[in-house]
Design goal:
Elements lengths: L2 H15 L4 H16 L4 H12 L6 H14 L2 H13 L5 H17 L2 H6 L1 H10 L6 H12 L9 H10 L3 H7 L1 H22 L12 H23 L5 H19 L5 H34 L2 H12 L3 H16 L4 H8 L4 H7 L3 H15 L7 H10 L3 H24 L2 H9 L5
Helix pairs in contact: 1-2, 2-15, 3-15, 4-14, 4-15, 5-6, 5-13, 6-8, 6-9, 6-12, 8-9, 9-21, 9-22, 10-18, 10-20, 11-23, 12-22, 13-14, 15-18, 16-19, 17-20, 18-20, 20-22
Length: 431
């Protein structure tokens, strides 16, 4: 390790420990590296500009953010929830199942776990805690856990980021996330059923079946959004970035024209909030682009790959070791930081060991999403705490069962790659 790289790491971890935003920590650490190395400091700005200019795929990020915020602002979330209550609310622990199914559906629109938790999550927590049917801690915990599905089923902002650093097909990554997302929903519903029986949760009054057609019709236009998105990408009609633009436009038409739920004022607030969110994500990506230049300059990926070749590690052991490391890092670091800074270190090793990059990418993103609910730095726990006022300690007390269920799903994805790769192969992927 060179002196400059050591200085870079010291500055990065020092600033992060002080609570400095991770994007600023990476940029300042990169400048420290360039200064110690005697390189032109303007190189940092050059790396950001070139990286962003050359990455057309990154335009998908703000467009998916806009689509998610429009969905949250309109009455679309309410219509989807009414549909889910009618479909699965009649079983024991029914509103818990509604929570999970709603996240599965909403994940096909937002691509963001935070958008899911802050939007539809807040509504269903109020439903679950009404009249004391579920404790606030339990309602919040299952909401946080189900929100992790959001970035797994397409569209997915984290997978767009992974595609950027790995040069992997975003279309096949999106396809690879569908079955893992459904698996995550299944294990959460099994855990919710177990806890519901154990705690003897009350049964909800079932919605009459004669109301199902009307509720389905009300929700149908919203349910079409992921279908349109996937057909656009896999039917060869649009690129992933163009599909993101279509998703944003469809969300706007749906909310403003079909449901008539948007005003000019609310639209201004949506665009303003989306711009701030996009700028925040862009700053993290910019910092990662400089950091990736430093990592490449130090040949860190080559050294890691050489080390693995020397010790003749098996691909399965490597996957388990990397995922164990990512689970630990998920307790401390933001998911974007792990995807943009940590995961690229292992991509050359994956190629060396013959590990499929679509499989590795989907598994790594699932791992990072589990990190979003892992104390002490589970950002989804903080989001729900901030939006509902439910004490953090109550949420953490209830989160462990759902955390264990998601880890089991992650292990199954590692052991059985076809869970990830079956759908991509059906659409012509040769990995």
């Amino acid at each position: 390790m060179s002196t400059a790289f050591f200085a870079c790491l010291v500055v990065l971890f020092f600033l992060a420990a002080l609570g400095t935003p991770i994007a600023l920590s990476m940029i300042v650490a990169a400048i420290a590296y360039l200064a110690v190395n005697g390189q032109d400091l303007s190189l940092a700005a050059e790396q950001i500009i070139q990286g962003l200019y050359d990455s057309f795929i990154l335009l998908a990020v703000p467009l998916f953010i806009v689509a998610a915020n429009i969905m949250n602002a309109g009455t679309i979330s309410d219509r989807l929830l009414n549909f889910c209550v009618a479909a699965v609310g009649r079983f024991r622990g029914g509103l818990g199942h509604v929570n999970i199914v709603a996240s599965l559906i909403f994940s096909g629109m937002s691509g963001s776990a935070v958008a899911d938790a802050a939007g539809i999550g807040k509504i269903i927590i109020e439903m679950m805690t009404r009249n004391g049917r579920y404790s606030p801690g339990y309602a919040s915990a299952i909401t946080a856990a189900s929100a992790t599905i959001g970035p797994i089923i397409p569209p997915s902002i984290p997978m767009v980021m992974y595609a950027l650093v790995s040069d992997t097909s975003i279309g096949y990554l999106f396809l690879g996330g569908i079955l893992p997302g459904l698996l995550m929903g299944l294990v959460l519903m099994i855990m919710n059923s177990y806890i519901a029986r154990k705690r003897d949760f009350a049964l909800e009054e079932p919605v009459p079946l004669k109301k199902m057609p009307k509720l389905t019709v009300n929700a149908f236009p919203a349910l079409l959004m992921p279908v349109i998105l996937l057909y656009g990408i896999y039917g060869g009609v649009t690129t992933p970035t163009e599909a993101a633009a279509v998703a944003a436009a469809y969300a706007f038409i749906l909310a403003a024209v079909f449901y008539r739920a948007l005003s000019w004022k609310s639209m201004y607030e949506i665009m303003s909030y989306s711009a701030k969110s996009s700028a925040s994500v862009g700053l993290v990506i910019g910092g990662a682009l400089i950091f990736n230049y430093i990592v490449a300059s130090e040949n860190v990926p080559g050294k890691v790959a050489g080390l693995l070749s020397a010790i003749e590690i098996s691909p399965l052991f490597f996957l388990f070791a990397v995922n164990a490391l990512l689970l630990v890092l998920g307790c401390l670091l933001d998911a974007s930081t792990i995807i943009l800074v940590i995961i690229p270190l292992f991509i050359p090793a994956c190629r060396e060991l013959g590990i499929d990059l679509v499989h590795f990418g989907v598994v790594a993103v699932v791992n990072c999403m589990i990190g979003l609910i892992t104390p002490p730095y589970g950002i989804l726990l903080f989001v729900i705490n901030a939006t509902t006022g439910i004490p953090l300690r109550d949420i953490i007390r209830e989160i462990w069962s759902f955390l264990a269920a998601l880890v089991i799903a992650l292990i199954l994805m590692i052991l059985f790659p076809d869970i990830v790769l079956w759908l991509p192969r059906m659409f012509g992927y040769n990995g």
